[in-house]
From TrEMBL:
SUPFAM superfamilies: Nudix. It comes from the Bacteria. This is Nudix hydrolase domain-containing protein. It comes from Asanoa ferruginea.
Length: 215
């Protein structure tokens, strides 16, 4: 009886989840929420902190799944700490003074290859709620655009379980490395690069750089 009541309560909460925000609406449609950490520096040249995946050797900005009731920024901090040994929060749980959060925004949703459907939970930390019953079929990506003053202040160290290397790359180099990803993922990451460049140098200078991505 208790299990039946619990199931009714869970299903009755669906309208509230649908109205509670875009991330939960994406989860209800089978998307796992991922946050891309765009850690950037403008000097001496526009650069991006990137990681090399142990699974396929592809380069990309660090990214992390967002757990149930976890903020996007908290997920960024957790992912950078666990994968790259980079701490962006102080002891009070606030963003350190040398990190400047410019924006967190939705980028796109990508379908996963069929063989990857259901390979993990649609959201972490949801073992005993409605989301645990939803099969993951796609990923919805947000990006956090964070600027630091100096690259030397952020020197990561890979955990070697998920990432092999953590390095600063110029935006031009990053654009080249990103092409090694699956085509739809590469296109999504290019869009993050474009937006990141706008945050670093302004829209006019960023527009001068954008055509290079299409080469």
């Amino acid at each position: 009886m208790f299990a039946e009541i619990k199931e009714v309560v869970q299903w009755s909460s669906v309208p509230l989840l649908w109205l509670s925000g875009k991330a939960n609406r994406k989860r209800l449609s089978g998307a796992r929420i991922e946050i891309i950490a765009m850690i950037m520096c403008s000097r001496p040249t526009p650069s991006l902190l990137m990681v090399q995946s142990v699974y396929d050797d592809c380069w990309m900005p660090a990214q992390e799944g967002v757990n149930y009731r976890e903020s996007f920024l908290a997920a960024v901090a957790r992912g950078l700490s666990e994968e790259c040994d980079v701490s962006i929060f102080d002891r009070e749980g606030q963003l350190k003074s040398n990190y400047y959060l410019r924006d967190i925004e939705y980028v796109d949703t990508l379908w996963l290859p069929y063989e990857r459907w259901g390979e993990r939970a649609v959201v972490g930390g949801s073992e005993d709620n409605f989301f645990s019953q939803i099969q993951m079929r796609k990923k919805a990506y947000w990006a956090a655009f964070i600027i630091v003053d100096q690259m030397k202040a952020v020197q990561g160290r890979p955990n070697l379980r998920e990432v092999n290397r953590v390095e600063w790359k110029t935006f031009d180099n990053a654009a080249t490395l990103i092409r090694g990803n699956r085509s739809d993922k590469a296109e999504l990451l290019f869009r993050c690069l474009q937006k990141g460049m706008q945050h670093l140098v302004g829209s006019r200078r960023a527009d001068e750089w954008l055509p290079e991505l299409a080469d």
